[in-house]
Design brief:
mainly alpha, DNA polymerase, domain 1, hpI Integrase, Chain A, three-stranded antiparallel β-sheet, two-stranded antiparallel ribbon, about 45% helix, elongated
């Protein structure tokens, strides 16, 4: 029936061939879950009266909202409920028993889990004290322990075991299984996938071969490279596991394998070989030394030259000697003044850098980078000690500009490219990783054993071989050696 007189303007929507007059709400959002449950009981009763077959799905929807209200703070779960019901009014085929991941992503973006709603008896966050089996024993609530804030169950003898699994703990450890940088790239892929299938009203999970084939084709048309698409599949695998679906056997999808191979062949035909990053060689280091020595009156020149030699002779990634942003310094992860030590204060022959976190150290055990004297003009020990004498023992990041700002990765690459251009070198194919590539290439050219190169660069596999750039003239000499 049409809206009553004097009410707010109505929006006419069609549901199963019937006109629905939806009046804009004039009241505030529902303040808590008990109030929502009371309202939803009336709402679902009206729907079940018209559509009795929807009773089961509506009860499951009520269970989903109860679960979301325990995981996320108000009003994010209310926003999800409003958005879901609004979209369901437009689409009669909406399955109310399943969580809509598109609406979920928009409603709970950057929302934190509730951590202060817990059971005082067993310390679980999946139920309240009144619903805990310990409550029936009559024992007084235990004080929440500081060392283990979310234990799975109480250690009281002869007490019933709470079988409700602590989902907050599980999600926390699942989240910690990959690095923050991987999280950022995975989130981008997952958001793109969910957005695509939400727009065409297809349930994105569980993963299906047809869905992945369409997604790969969509990415290829958007000029996403073959290697990035493969990384996107890893992100989608994690998305499926995070929602408790079975392991997706992506590698066993035959049609998807053919589609991905087709994308790879087409991109190789169109673009040819992607230009590789060039290595920083000893000759280039000599030119950079002359460049920075000419600016020895600038404190920043000492700092940049120390960073260059440390990165090269330490086989380090540029991200290990720089910060992602000026405000990102974390003493527990990044290099500081206290992380530099020498073997002898009066006549140091080597410098030790304590690297607290790195790409190949997900468990934060830390690793010690040892850099020795070279007894020539490129000596990294002399460069680093000269810079530290100017820097002093100020707290903060190890490499600081004269104005106190830390050395970020983007600014490091910018400064190096500027220096390369000023010494007559095309800097377009040089990046932060060029130092690590150059160190591996130079070590191989000097006849250092592969196992030593792998150890110096902290490579866990034979991936270090991809970093070694053998000059073409040296490759050409092998022909005469073979023919001899």
């Amino acid at each position: 029936m049409p809206p009553a007189k004097g009410s707010a303007p109505a929006a006419n929507k069609i549901l199963d061939g019937h006109n629905l007059y939806i009046v804009r709400p004039t009241k505030r959002l529902i303040p808590d879950f008990p109030t929502w449950l009371q309202c939803f009981s009336v709402y679902s009763a009206v729907l079940i009266l018209k559509y009795p077959e929807r009773a089961t799905s509506l009860l499951l929807y009520q269970k989903n909202i109860a679960y979301l209200s325990q995981r996320f703070r108000w009003p994010s779960w209310v926003v999800y409920d409003n958005s879901f019901r609004s979209e369901a009014a437009d689409n009669a085929k909406t399955d109310w028993s399943l969580i809509d991941y598109g609406v979920h992503s928009r409603s709970f973006h950057n929302q934190t889990l509730i951590r202060d709603s817990w059971c005082a008896n067993c310390h679980s966050v999946d139920h309240l004290q009144a619903d805990c089996p310990y409550a029936k024993t009559g024992a007084p609530p235990k004080k929440r322990p500081a060392a283990a804030p979310y234990p799975m169950h109480s250690k009281r003898p002869n007490a019933p075991i709470c079988m409700n699994f602590n989902r907050t703990n599980l999600e926390h450890y699942f989240h910690q299984s990959i690095a923050p940088a991987t999280h950022r790239s995975y989130n981008s892929a997952q958001t793109r996938y969910i957005k695509l299938y939400t727009q065409i009203s297809i349930q994105p999970l569980p993963l299906e071969e047809t869905h992945l084939c369409r997604f790969a084709s969509f990415l290829a048309k958007d000029n996403i490279t073959y290697t990035t698409i493969k990384c996107y599949f890893s992100a989608l695998r994690r998305l499926q596991l995070s929602h408790n679906y079975p392991e997706p056997m992506i590698s066993s999808f035959p049609k998807l394998e053919c589609v991905v191979k087709g994308i790879k062949r087409e991109q190789a035909h169109k673009k040819g070989e992607t230009p590789k990053r060039l290595p920083i060689t000893i000759e280039i280091l000599q030119k950079l030394r002359v460049f920075f020595e000419a600016r020895s009156h600038e404190t920043d020149a000492f700092m940049l030259w120390a960073a260059v030699t440390t990165c090269f002779f330490g086989f380090m990634r540029s991200g290990e000697i720089t910060l992602p942003s000026e405000s990102a310094f974390d003493p527990s992860s990044h290099l500081g003044f206290a992380d530099v030590t020498v073997d002898d204060i009066s006549a140091p022959q080597l410098v030790k850098l304590r690297l607290k976190a790195s790409k190949t150290d997900p468990f934060r055990k830390g690793v010690e980078i040892v850099i020795g004297r070279t007894h020539n003009s490129l000596c990294p020990v002399a460069a680093l000690l000269s810079y530290l004498a100017i820097r002093g023992n100020r707290p903060g990041f190890l490499f600081l500009f004269a104005d106190g700002r830390p050395l970020t990765k983007s600014r490091f690459i910018l400064k190096i490219r500027e220096a390369l251009s000023l010494v007559g070198i095309d800097s377009s194919q040089y990046a932060g990783h060029s130092f690590r590539i150059g160190a591996a290439t130079t070590a191989a050219a000097q006849g250092i054993q592969d196992s030593v190169i792998q150890m110096l660069g902290r490579w866990k596999s034979s991936a270090y071989q991809l970093y070694i750039r053998t000059p073409k003239d040296k490759l050409a000499r092998y022909s005469s050696i073979i023919a001899a």
